[in-house]
UniProtKB/TrEMBL annotation:
Keywords from the named record: ATP-binding, Nucleotide-binding, Transport
Lineage: Bacteria, Bacillati, Actinomycetota, Actinomycetes, Actinomycetales
GO cellular component: membrane protein complex; plasma membrane
Domain ABC transporter: 1-225
One Gene Ontology term of the molecular function aspect: transmembrane transporter activity
Signal sequence interval, chain numbering: none
Protein name: ABC transporter ATP-binding protein
Length: 226
């Protein structure tokens, strides 16, 4: 990213500049956290990284491709195949069991039924909830829901996982288990992981910590990954 600016309500009396111009590089295989208080701009930044929004100014290159030249269809395809999302509130589809929740991204990507069923079963096993495959979200604990959400994020074998406050709705012990899954994916599968959090203890578990303040990256620290 180079010179990233994000404004809302541009050209009106209510114009708001959330991201105020910064450069940022995240490298393949890194585990990075972005920390900051509410209103610092970290979620807006995550939306741009995840191709859910575009910067008002600046350039964003993803895997060498200039996203400023990508149309909405290009971005949707890249988002589907290259990026997995994990959210604080899980965002699982209600009245749909864990197996089918994990299959959904593959269905949208055109993966055949037999292949996506096998892949979903494999991912649920990976995150430790294979025995809950045919349970709906309202039959799962918070930790189980987040494990299913991580399996779903991995469905299309993305290069990048974006996790927005993934332990925010969980108790401390369950949150540590979920963080352990991210470490496993990073260590064993080489995934690039970007963790959005306001929790400094979680951030310390990552390789690099980006501190956001007032729409800028104010500082960068090394995490304690030993």
């Amino acid at each position: 990213m180079q010179g990233i600016v994000k404004r809302f309500f541009e050209g009106t009396d209510h114009e708001l500049t959330v991201l105020k111009g910064f450069d940022l590089a995240i490298y393949p295989g890194e585990f990075v956290s972005i920390v900051g208080s509410s209103g610092s701009g970290k979620s807006t930044l995550m939306n741009i990284i995840g191709l859910l929004d575009r910067p008002t100014e600046g350039q964003y290159y993803l895997a060498g491709q200039d996203m400023g030249e990508a149309d909405d269809d290009d971005m949707a395809l890249l988002r589907s195949l290259s990026i997995g999302f994990v959210f604080q509130n899980f965002n699982l589809v209600g009245r749909t069991d864990a197996q089918k929740n994990v299959e959904l991204p593959m269905m949208y990507a055109g993966v055949g039924r037999t292949e996506r069923r096998a892949r979903a079963a494999e991912l649920l096993e990976l995150v430790g909830v294979a025995d809950r495959a045919h349970h709906q979200p309202n039959e799962l604990s918070g930790g189980q829901k987040q494990r299913v959400a991580i399996a779903r994020a991995m469905a299309n074998d993305p290069d990048i996982i974006l996790a927005d406050e993934p332990t925010g709705a969980l108790d401390t012990e369950t949150g540590l288990l979920v963080m352990g899954l991210f470490h496993k994916l990073h260590r064993e599968q080489g995934k690039t992981i970007v963790l959005i959090t306001h929790n400094p203890e979680l951030a310390e578990q990552t390789e690099r910590i980006l501190h956001m303040r007032d729409g800028l990256i104010a500082a960068t620290d090394r995490g304690d990954t030993q």
